[in-house]
Write a structure and sequence with these properties.
The structure is a single chain. This protein is of the alpha/beta class and 223 residues long. It has one domain: Vaccinia Virus protein VP39 (Rossmann fold, 3-Layer(aba) Sandwich), CATH 3.40.50.150. The protein is built from five helices and nine strands; from the N terminus they run H-E-E-H-E-E-H-H-E-E-E-H-E-E. A seven-stranded mixed β-sheet has the order 3-2-1-4-5-9-8, sandwiched between helices. Strands 6-7 form a two-stranded antiparallel sheet. Strand 2, helix 2 and strand 3 form a beta-alpha-beta unit. The N terminus is likely disordered.
Length: 223
């Protein structure tokens, strides 16, 4: 079903779907007719690009309930993608931010929210959604980034939607880490686009930091 998501009222919700405004940015960034992968697909928002200007999308999602929301999403892990080297024109994805959505509590009747509460069960082992910002988060997502690079064609794009947050009153520069790590692995950052989506308005301390779209090219790996 080109450009649509299935209506799945009995499937658990997802607390971090793409904001609607982001698709306009993606449409400008990703070339027409591109073969696009999202290795952290969630409920499949990336598939709104499927068929748009000739693009084809594929999703990978660890949690089966969310993968089942769209037929173009495969159950699997971003740490070991089931694809050949240099297969995709672009990887476009939004990994977990490492913020309070990673909290593991099962719900206490307040308006707090998390991936765990949204899914209605503990996250699958190996899920980055359950990792707070720190060494484990960085190690896991650096492995995922290497897989993204492996499956992206020379001169292809890797586009990361990310967001900073506050922890203990201190700013956590998650976006800068992603940009630095992408560069450290041979990618060339071509743009960092700020986008204010408002965050989770009912959070105790709403995160008003803008989301970023970090755009990089694999071109430097072939020169």
């Amino acid at each position: 079903m080109t450009g649509q998501l299935f209506d799945t009222p009995n499937i658990p919700g997802h607390p971090a779907t793409y904001p609607e405004a982001i698709y306009g940015f993606f449409d400008q960034i990703v070339p027409a007719n591109a073969n696009v992968l999202d290795p952290f697909a969630g409920k499949g928002g990336i598939h709104k690009l499927n068929g748009l200007n000739g693009r084809t999308t594929t999703g990978i999602e660890l949690e089966e309930e969310w993968a089942d929301c769209h037929p173009r999403t495969i159950v699997g892990t971003a740490l070991d993608l089931p694809f050949s080297d240099n297969e995709f024109d672009a990887v476009v994805t939004s990994p977990a931010y490492g913020n309070r959505l990673a909290d593991s509590y099962a719900g206490d009747g307040t308006l707090r929210f998390s991936y765990r509460i949204s899914l209605g069960r503990p996250l699958t082992d190996g899920s980055g959604a359950g990792l707070h910002w720190g060494d484990d988060y960085r190690t896991m997502h650096e492995t995922a980034l290497k897989e993204m690079i492996r499956v992206t064609k020379p001169e292809g794009l890797i586009v990361i939607n990310m967001k900073d947050h506050q922890r203990g009153g201190e700013h956590q520069a998650v976006c800068d880490w992603w940009a630095y790590t992408m560069t450290d692995h041979g990618l060339t950052i071509t743009d960092r686009i700020l986008m204010h989506s408002g965050g989770i308005g009912f959070a105790k301390h709403p995160n008003k930091a803008p989301e970023e779209i970090i755009v990089a090219t694999k071109e430097s790996l072939t020169t």
